[in-house]
Design brief:
CATH class: Alpha Beta
CATH topology: Rossmann fold
Order of helices and strands: EHEHHEHEHHEEHEHEHHE
Strand content: 15-25%
Number of strands: 9
Distance between the termini: 31 Å
Length: 244
């Protein structure tokens, strides 16, 4: 049986995977979800202001250590791709699979800020205008009301990698094509498609497939979609949704 650690994207917490978790557990797997430091309901302003990408990678590493987890599948959504990359690079071989769910796949020296497009960068700046350290969630007509301000430093900090993350034997990127007019990940998809060490899947959803197509996401994680190593296109049940 597999062990999954699910890492949310910007402004979200563990609840963002609430429709996916029971599908994985019903198949007999162990699932851990995280709400990252600075996004927890009890976090005070000082905690939020101090939290950065290193803090969030340490959240993952502490979980691996505390629960004594090995052979872990790390799944990161959106900004969470930054987190699982940094954590895998420092995890001393505990990670066997990385799944980037419409997520940042950073190279050494990149940040969420540098990977995202101008629309996202503008939302980071505008969202942090009130406090200077916490980015308010961007307005969306169907935005999850549980979203919380996200530590600005986490979006800005560049990742420093030793290269150990590239030793993870399975690396997969899931491209959500249902918001192609706004996605920041099109060039990233092109890059990874050309890399034989990566598997690229396509989902015809907007940016939050965990909400729009939880069964398709679970099927991908459970290897029920396609034969390993082949690019795939997964069909979700239709449901209207915009970005994050």
């Amino acid at each position: 049986m597999a062990t999954f650690v699910l890492v949310p994207g910007g402004w979200h917490g563990s609840w963002t995977f609430e429709a996916v978790v029971p599908l994985l557990e019903r198949a007999g797997h162990t699932v851990h979800t995280l709400t990252l430091t600075g996004l927890r309901p009890h976090d005070d302003p000082a905690t939020i202001a101090a939290a950065n990408l290193d803090t969030h990678a340490d959240d993952v590493l502490r979980l691996l250590e505390r629960a004594q987890l090995e052979d872990v599948t790390l799944v990161g959504h959106s900004y969470g791709g930054m987190v699982i990359t940094a954590a895998a690079d420092r995890a001393d071989g505990r990670v066997c699979r990385l799944v980037y769910l419409d997520a940042c796949v950073p190279r050494d020296g990149e940040s969420c800020w540098s990977i995202m497009n101008e629309g996202y960068r503008q939302s980071f700046v505008a969202g942090a205008a009130t406090t200077g350290y916490a980015v308010q969630p961007p307005w969306r007509p169907d935005g999850d009301p549980r979203r919380r301000p996200h530590p600005l430093a986490a979006f800005l900090q560049t990742v420093r990698l030793t290269g150990a993350h590239a030793d993870v034997p399975r690396r997969e990127f899931v491209y959500c094509s249902g918001w192609e007019d706004r996605t920041p990940f099109a060039d990233q998809r092109t890059r990874l498609l050309a890399d034989p060490e990566w598997t690229v899947h396509d989902l015809p959803t907007a940016h939050n497939p965990m909400r729009e197509a939880p069964r398709a996401v679970a099927a991908l994680l459970l290897d029920e979609a396609d034969e390993p190593g082949e690019n795939s296109a997964l069909a979700p049940r239709p449901m209207a949704q915009l970005g994050s």
